[in-house]
Amino acid sequence: MILEISLQGVSPPLSDCQPKFVDAPNQLLYWRRFSMESTHAFVRSSGRISNLGAPIRLIHCQILRMSPPVSSDLFHLFHVEQFSWVYRPIKMSPQQMDIIAGRTPMTLHMGSHPSATFAPSSITWFAVQSPASSVGSIVGIEFNGKSTLKSWTDGITTRGHIISTIDELNHTIATNESFEFPGFFIGSFDGDWDEAGYRTQRFQEDIISPPIPSPKYPFVQYDSWSYGIDGNNAVQQMAALDVAIELGLEVFVLDLGWASQIGEWIVDPIKYPQGLAPLVKKAHQNGILFGLHLPLAQVNMEAPIIKAHPDWTAFPGTSDYFGATALCLSNVPARDWIIRSILFMIDEYDIDYIVQDGEDMIKRCEHHDHTHDFGDSNYANSVNGLDYVIGEIRKKRPHIIFENCEDGGTMLTYKMASLYHTSISVDDTTSYMTRQGIWGMSYPFSPRYGARYFQDPVTISNLRSNLIGGPFILQQRITDWDNATFTTVKTFIEQYKKFRQMIRSAKIIHLVAPSSIPDAPIGWDAIQAVASDQSESIIVAFRSLLGDDTFNLKPRGLSNQTMYRVELEDEQTSLEMLGKDIQMHGVNVTCKQSYCSELILISQTLKST
Q1: What pLDDT score was predicted for residue 28?
Q2: Computed from CA positions of residues 219, 224, 226, 229, in that sequence, does the dihedral angle turn out positive or negative?
Q3: Which of 290, 415, 481, 518 has its CA 20 to 30 A from that of 50?
């Protein structure tokens, strides 16, 4: 092999190293890019194979291979599970695995998975650390398709082994065509898993994710889901828009039911006889963005496009989403049609926001006659399917804000984070499960990738479950509220807007984990956000069933020698202490009944030493 290395853009902030390996007998050109950003201890890598000779078939591909240091014949691997309706009572559970010498390799399944899979799948992020060191490594994978991570140590060397591979690959590289390797990044941290998460989030925000779409982001939003599919109509939603304006909401979204049917993305003429124009006009006149729910990879068998092209489905006749079947997005004719349909929808209805929904967005296709190779739909429906569709829409309509949703956080990857402005964590569920979801989600992703759908009865505690992260989305029958409920929510919205800019770049500290019993949550849980300059912090603490009336919380992440004022909002008490004393002695929080909460505000005073 011949190695060619070119260095480009050496001046800050980015330097690139692009090795090229030429396999002369087979006429394969292997290209790998490594980028290093000066303000982050991370390296990001991507690559491709170009085929200059006869066609070849690729059936196995490693995304990455690494060898972390081992101490006492083991190392720790920390990851977070994705959402599942049925697998585990606690949603999006963080897990620390001990990788021990001589044992069977530990296996993690990553990428897009169905929401009803009775098996674990993992966010494409993990951190590793030797028990003898505070220094560790962080890895994120930029691939929406399904992949498998295996980790083990053999006890012979002082290194462990971690390998990530693409699942179910069967890809032909034709003459003069290329195969794109999924990207990944690797970085370092010094500290605990919170520090690993924070370092990842700062890199993700600065390098990977789309820019924050507004200084006001994450938004406070309305979504029509609580009115049901039949309640998605002009009369009901115009009334809801009037309430949304009074509340000071910033995005108004029509959920499933606005269109003629799934896969026919024109407005239902019966539900909306004047179209969407009256709603959109009124929203825009009041400074509100207008959005639509779009399960873009789903289609009813009765939809005109499938009547004309029944072969465009991924698997014949089977429903996997509200009676709709799956569209194969890497079949080029189907892919080009959905792009045209979405562009028409955006322009015709003057929308600003899309909630992309559906079941397992990387569809398994069983057709032999599509434009992708048979058996390659895992790779093709990711790279040449969904990724391509969202990329083209964003390129052609850059003002559109994309929210990722697939019946819950089931495609939580860094490719997703590069394409979408936010993502769901848990879906259509209770405030307690929402707290479970954000507990796990806030390790690998920054707070704006923690969209919460608020459906529970309106109480202060239930509202506070949505404070850290966002967007905050009201899936409520807001036209049915009485004055007291309206006032309670409006007051919380004002508080949410006050703190959101600090929280979106804050370090998230996981203080007390929610319990694993969703229907009867027990004890206390608490989560903290600390400003990047340590000048202020917010803690939201919750008491569920049982537990003592008073709980001692020990905040972290504060500056030891800074004097802080600590205020308990409900108790209406305050005290002043040095950061080191707050962290050592803690703060006593009292809730004398189940299902109550406290908001603790910590701010720097002028008495700092």
Answers
A1: 86
A2: negative
A3: 415
